[in-house]
Specification:
Blueprint lengths: L20 H8 L3 E5 L2 E4 L1 H19 L4 E2 L5 E3 H6 L2 H4 L6 E3 L5 E4 L4 H8 L11 E10 L14 E11 L2 H22 L3 E5 L9 E8 L5 E6 L2 E4 L22 E4 L6 H8 L7 E7 L5 E7 L6 H7 L7 E2 L2 H8 L15 E4 H4 L4 E4 L5 E6 L9 E3 L18 E15 L1 H5 L3 E3 L5 E3 L1 E8 H11 L1 E2 L2 E2 L10 E5 L5 H16 L4 E4 L5 H11 L3 E5 L1 H6 L1 E6 L4 E6 L3 H10 L1
Parallel strand pairs: 3-7, 15-17, 17-20, 27-28, 27-29
Antiparallel strand pairs: 1-2, 4-6, 5-6, 7-8, 8-24, 9-10, 10-21, 11-12, 11-21, 13-19, 14-15, 14-16, 18-19, 21-24, 22-23, 25-26, 29-30, 30-31
Helix pairs in contact: 1-12, 2-6, 2-12
């Protein structure tokens, strides 16, 4: 392909709303173009890379017996009502009515549609297992789309769904897809991590995320030895019990703390470390009933852990100042667990404290020498905090380190969440009706595209992995008026075509410096410089984009050299 026959327009500068390197480079290279916030056109270069990602995905899934379909992006309300997700998904689901006043949504995910697809077909134990997938556009109405394709509203996704007879067989399907994802992201060329994760609004009880490791990744990953988890659920090892230490419970005492409403201020005033102070936070559950959570002063509450501990569909909502006052009789900063008539949950780190300080439920007053059981009852203890670097991982007994990651894939074991709600059943070998076990597996195809750029770039531009580069070779033809050069170019083009190697020829009437700048920006694996001086010497310059190594290669060996570089 020659540049003058394409629709490629590069930019010297990125637009102001492009914040991270990959977003800037995707725009500058002409891979994508913004249409509206969170909505982009994939231009030819971006689309070529996207199609190569899709090809890898299809090859790995097809070899594992997965079956490709294409489901609609427009979905009726009735299907979502069967699982109660019409309400649960909230404003993220873009809803609308047609001319007949029927309600629909744009597909944010397809669990309901695919369960409806199979529930009238998979009726016998002989029909299993099944794994159905699609590569299709999704839409989620993000509040603040950002970072280009990383957090868009409209995006391309591969979603697959497994259907099995038993939990054990469903786990086999889960393992097969887990391994498929390992193969897919390895073939793309990623440096990636697999982490335990929350199931979120999709549901289920087992989940792993696949993250591309990158400096500007959206997610914090907690890594300890061979164990890795998303910050949302990373467990924290509870401190050693102090039951073996004889601690005398001191007399409860109220003391004045005027204008001391923060843990920091209270610590400075009392001389007690923040980690040994106790703060009380207030939430409401799904029935709108309030409850309290106790944390050490230097910890942050983890709403995902709370949600999972309390088996809620969504993270609990924090009470505002007015609601806190109604529950406690005091303003936030002066509240504590003593005398409360609501459930009180305590983090494990608080459980080992004694004679600690809490708010007195009276403005500008606190209580010291507070102890469990004597002064208040705790409903339950648990791990409710956000893990921090240096915290001990209970799985390994070693401290965590923090890495940044971009989530590109997610696998879920759903169990019977959707099949039970939608009546997807089958008859087993004994003629008994059983509910189908399901799994769900997603890859953000368009996000994978940009994640590759985020992980593979330098100061000059993109450095595409060979597996998904829009073109494998970038030929800079420096003098298209030179008949000998044109003849040589045509011969190279012919040999590359016969070898099945895709290439782009920069045949524009531009200065060599401009062409080299654009070649670095576009970042294809191999650059060939075809100029008059090289032709006279009988050698052509070949540059490897990733290392910028330059090689002088005899004209008749250029294509063989390119093959060797691409195959290495």
């Amino acid at each position: 392909m020659r540049w003058t026959d394409t629709h490629i327009f590069t930019l010297r500068e990125a637009p102001a709303d492009a914040e991270i390197p990959s977003h800037k480079l995707m725009i500058r290279s002409g891979c994508i173009k913004k249409v509206a916030p969170g909505i982009f056109t994939y231009q030819n270069l971006g689309l070529r890379a996207l199609r190569k990602i899709e090809k890898i995905v299809r090859e790995e899934l097809d070899k594992r017996g997965c079956i490709e379909v294409l489901m609609p992006v427009v979905q009726p309300r009735e299907l979502w009502e069967e699982t109660n997700r019409w309400k649960e998904m909230g404003a993220g689901l873009l809803k609308f009515k047609n001319r007949n006043d029927h309600e629909f949504c744009l597909g944010a995910t397809h669990e309901e549609v695919v369960t409806d697809l199979i529930r009238n077909d998979l009726k016998s134990y002989r029909d299993f297992p099944r794994n159905i997938y699609q590569i299709q556009t999704k839409y989620r109405d993000e509040i603040r789309p950002r970072f280009g394709l990383m957090r868009g509203r409209e995006f391309l996704m591969k979603d697959a769904y497994s259907f099995d007879r038993t939990v054990d067989e469903a786990q086999m399907s889960y393992k097969k897809m887990y391994e498929a994802y390992q193969a897919i992201f390895s073939r793309i060329g990623f440096d990636f991590a697999i982490v335990e994760a929350d199931t979120g609004s999709i549901g289920g009880n087992q989940s792993h995320e696949f993250h591309v490791l990158a400096e500007f990744g959206e997610d914090a990953l907690m890594i300890s030895g061979d164990f890795a988890a998303n910050l949302e659920i990373a467990p924290v090892q509870p401190p050693s019990s102090r039951d073996d230490i004889m601690i005398m419970a001191l007399e409860l005492e109220e003391f004045a703390t005027p204008n001391l409403r923060t843990i920091s201020d209270l610590s400075k005033s009392t001389g007690v470390k923040e980690s040994e102070l106790v703060k009380t936070m207030f939430f409401r559950d799904e029935k709108e009933k309030p409850f309290a959570v106790l944390l050490c002063g230097n910890d942050e509450v983890n709403p995902i852990k709370l949600k999972n501990f309390l088996k809620m569909a969504n993270p609990p909502e924090m009470l505002d100042d007015k609601a806190v006052f109604e529950v406690t009789g005091a303003s936030p900063g002066s509240c504590g667990p003593v005398g409360l008539k609501i459930p009180v949950y305590s983090d494990n780190r608080v459980a080992v404290l004694s004679n600690f300080i809490v708010g007195a439920n009276r403005d500008d007053f606190h209580l010291r020498n507070v102890n469990f059981k004597r002064d208040f009852e705790c409903t339950e203890f648990g791990d409710f905090v956000v893990a921090k670097e240096g915290d001990i991982c209970p799985e390994t007994g070693k401290p965590y380190t923090v890495r940044r990651g971009i989530e590109v894939g997610h696998v879920f074991y759903l169990g019977q969440k959707y099949s039970n709600a939608m009546g997807a059943k089958f008859l087993d070998e004994n003629g008994k009706s059983k509910t189908i076990e399901m799994g769900c597996y997603g890859i953000g195809v368009s996000r994978t595209l940009q994640a590759s750029v985020e992980q593979n770039h330098d100061d000059d531009g993109i450095v595409w992995p060979k597996s998904i580069s829009p073109y494998s070779v970038h030929i800079c033809a420096l003098d298209m008026k030179n008949a000998k050069l044109v003849s040589c170019l045509e011969n190279i083009e012919k040999n590359l075509n016969e070898s099945g190697i895709d290439f782009l020829v920069d045949d524009r009437k531009e200065r060599p410096g401009v062409k080299f700048k654009d070649a670095d920006l576009l970042g294809f694996p191999v650059r060939v410089t075809l100029g008059s001086k090289g032709l006279e010497s009988g050698e052509i310059e070949v540059v490897i984009r990733s290392s910028k190594e330059k090689r002088s290669v005899p004209i008749d060996r250029v294509v063989d050299e390119i093959k060797g570089i691409l195959e290495s």
